[in-house]
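Students often ask why we bother encoding 3D structure as a string. The short answer is that it lets us treat folding as translation between two languages. Here is a chain of 428 residues written in the first language.
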Amino acid sequence: MIDLTRPESLGLSSARLNCIADHFDRYVDEGKIPGYLVLVARRGKAAYLHRCGLRDVEAGLPVEEDSIFRIYSMTKPITSVGVMMLYERGLLQLDDPVSEYIPGFKQLEVFESGNAESYLTVPVEREMTIRDLLTHTSGLTYGHIHAHPIDAMYRNRDLLGADKSLADMIGHLSELPLLFSPGTRWSYSVATDVLGYVIEVISGQSLDRFFAEQILEPLGMVDTAFMMSPEKVDRFAANYERAGGGFRLIDKPDESAYLKRIKLYSGGGGLVSTAGDYLRFCQMLLNKGALDAVRLLGRKTVELMTSNHLPGNCDLSSMGYILTNETRSQAIGVGLGARYNLRRGGLRSETRHDGVGFGLGGAVLLDPAAAHILGSPGEFSWGGAASTAFWVDPKQQMTVIFLTQLMPSSSYPIRRELRVLANQAIED
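And here it is in the second language, the structure alphabet:
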């Protein structure tokens, strides 16, 4: 159970926090999402937890406090913490060429022209580094973006397929060109999956064992894993995709791939978790690397992680990869807010990129006014493909977690709405 403290004792308004439920319950009532859970914590204590709707519509099961959700890319900050733990032990440096750990990456070149079958390349301006992987400035991409011939190359090789291993993925990536020369642009990508492989190479452990022994067990994240235990499947939420104004089932809990033994542990998006578990991870970040009697990272390391690492302290808008046939004013940093997909659907952009930088594993808010959002400079955040989200605000000592299961995350402007609804409840 998540123990709740009276919001007013933490400088929050109960009445104003209830605006969160008033707003998002309408999403459920109108059949836009199946159900959700939102958790707000401040000064180290949970202040507000609200759940509504169903975790499994077909079975008629409600969202519960301990429901287990696919957190997809909210796995990335956990992987990044693992990398920084190795960094603290002197086992890697941020400016290390990735080829020191993956020799095949020494020969990578940049796509210049052509298509997925026939193309020309040019040499990279410099080698890809560990920091490029952490900041998504590596030149890698995702196959599902459908914006470039390289995306098609990724799809043709099914890089993250169930029958693949991390070593298989790395082998394919070693044979493919980069989208751009490392450090010159920003593109959401399989970079964090590559970091998972780097962790395996350095630690000598599979990524699931490294996570369990070094991060999850020490933090008491008992329901966070790459696979669903059979005894927990009754708590596992079904997954849905947007279908018109509603949604359709795409992954049934008792038939899910998460119940099957896998070969590829995706550091970029493979974990399932609960609100209580992820709150412990967020609180560790908010506490600058420590939780209870456990310290995973030093204070200075977390401060480095949650600083903007884009060149010249620029934001994502100025680093975003330009989609085919789009102008710079319309461009997006691929994947962060899915503005392209939203615009095609006639909806507002979910997440703006003006005033938003990127740290080592997550977005960093630089300028709330430029981002058109309530928030604090230094806020660290990210989300998952099934519309999940979190942020950690050191200035306000506040953490917010939103869990649901609706793909894609660009379906509705949930994240920007939640920021307003949560932050407007702050009274001191």
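Translate back mentally: The two ends are 27 Å apart (CA to CA). Keep this in mind for the problem set.
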